[in-house]
Amino acid sequence: MKTLVVAALLGAFSLSVIATSSLAGSLTTEVNGVRAQLMSTPDPPVTDRKTTYTIRLVDAAGTPLTDARVTLTGRMADGMSAATPLRPAGEAGVYRGEVLFTMGGRGI
Question: What pLDDT, on the 0 to 100 scale, is given for residue 39?
Fold first, then answer.
């Protein structure tokens, strides 16, 4: 069930990111009673420098979701995509991973 919820949340993030590609830093959405907040550092991402993405997942009561499998997928304007796993970050419900942007674009 957690995998399905996370997939739905990331799907919602994909739509949010497409709709707000000029915004970076933090996006929040809620799907099926699960709230997800995605943050990036640096803000905005910089070409040829790693960007750290952190997502916080909590249920409707504010309880952190643990043991989730989280993958962040990014799509560039030219159609290329990259996926990176976000791993537990040492705090319940928080997952983190890095992406290296090797070329500029609308999101950089």
Answer: 93
Q: What is the pLDDT of residue 10?
A: 52
Rounded distance, CA 80 to CA 63, Å? 36
Position 14 pLDDT exceeds 80? no
Residues 6+ apart with CB under 8 A from 23: none
**Nearest CA-CA partner of 32 in 60, 56, 69:** 60
Judged against a pLDDT cut of 80, whether residue 6 lies above it is answered with no
Burial class of residue 79, CB neighbours in 10 A (0-12, 13-18, 19+): exposed
The model carries a pTM of 0.72
**Nearest residue to 72 via CA among 18, 22, 11, 31:** 11
* Residue 14 token pair: 């994909």
Cα gap 84→94, rounded to integer Å: 15
38 exposure class (CB count in 10 Å sphere: 0-12, 13-18, 19+): buried
